[in-house]
Write a structure and sequence with these properties.
It contains 23 helices and four strands. It is mainly alpha-helical.
Length: 545
Amino acid sequence: MRRLVASVLLLNLLFAGPVMATAPAAQPAAAAAKGEADSSKKAEKPADKVAASDAAKTDGDVHAENAKSLEKTIDGAFGGIVGVLATVMFWEIPGLKMPFVVAWLAFGAVFFTLRMTFVNIRMFTHAISVVRGRFDDPNEPGEVSHFQALSSALSATVGLGNIAGVAVAVMAGGPGAVFWMVCAAAFGMTSKFTECTLGVKYRITDANGAVSGGPMQYLSAGLQELGLGPIGKVLAGLFAILCIGGSFGGGNMFQVGQSYGAISEVLPFELSKSVYGLTMAALVGVVIIGGIQSIARVAEKIVPAMVSIYVIAALFVLISHAGDVPSAFGRIVGEAFNPKAGFGGLLGVLVQGVRRAAFSNEAGVGSASIAHAAAKTDEPVREGIVALLEPFIDTILVCTMTGLVIVITGVAEDPANAQLVADKSGAALTAVAFGSVISWFPKVLAICVLLFAYSTMISWSYYGERCFTYLFGAKSSLTYKIMFLIMVYVGAVSSMSNALDFSDLMILGMAFPNIIGLLALSGKVKKDLDHYVAKLKAGEFKTFK
């Protein structure tokens, strides 16, 4: 099965490969042609040299045009695939007008919350105690602390979805969409608990001490225990392929492209895409070559810093409009249940909230369990409890702050921003909202976007690398990392929108095999949770702080 999976993946990589090989090559030729053309203006040249210069210029233009043509051809091919996948995944359920993938994620979140008897609420304070290090035993198996695992997973989710996604939800569904985002995140906390508990429960450690866990492990081994081995292997292979594809696009190319756009807007000089791509590749490479321990050390510093900066700025805006905060909350709650368009409008607002929450915190997608599997613990349930904090921080805290800022400042309803609303430019609208109170904050926001993108890239590189080694073996780790760094550069210099849409769909697609496995294994998680809670109440766990 793995050989078949590997063959399919290699065909995809070979198909996309020419873009990586051709696009950068066009730039030196074009630059050389430009240099020769400029020098001809300064001094007269012999006829043969002029002809050579013209030939070089022509060849450079041809190479550049060929590169663009090839890029468009490949992007067009992805367009057809995107259309088919989008038709299936975003098929609207009759009557509800809710995309199937959103309903699937929402169903899983509600089911797990009821199955685990609201573990997201009753174990919340215990989760904070664990993150603070109270139960950290340095001799337990694993590679990173609970806090580092949480930071690594958060660094992959706290990002552009918190800045742009909330604004898009408010533009499309009104202030009430923020309420449903919070509700979806509250239930999604249990999805994170379930998948991350299984990630630790079924993790494996190789001869070098490197830990590997996540859906590809618990789908395979967990379903094997239930007598569903062949199905488990198929689902695990499917998840691994989807995750690798998602890591190259949504977790890489999209991030570097968006961060370039944000940074280039505030810099006082013109920044070359090639220079930016090479710089980001170098910065990412320095971290990811060191593996999860290196990624965790960086993430535990970046994540608290960028969340703190963003939340402090949001609080400043809210304090500046303190008198408007109660009415803003009133609109968010009121319009969630009483939209102007009646029942149809209510469904539309609900869908926008649930959909944006899914994009923001990735609860049910399974990616976070890969990072949490590396935590130093011999109690899988304990790490699952830590993981349930992610949707709370990512969506309930950060996204709510963004939503309140947008509602209070009224930028979504300001006629001056009509074009931004029409274009669904969420990040730009959020910048306008903050800028209306803090004139210089758009520059800080650009830095936040850069940090968000960078942290997302280093975490997704680990997700993709673990799935790649699952398919091709431990020795393929360096190969994947080199490919990932190449895609950083490609993401900076190219603009293959359909290819990126394809990758985004692959990330959402990860939810299908993952939730199937979670549903099948939920009984095991419930049993382990009850046993853990009983031991906790009996005081059987040793504390260290």
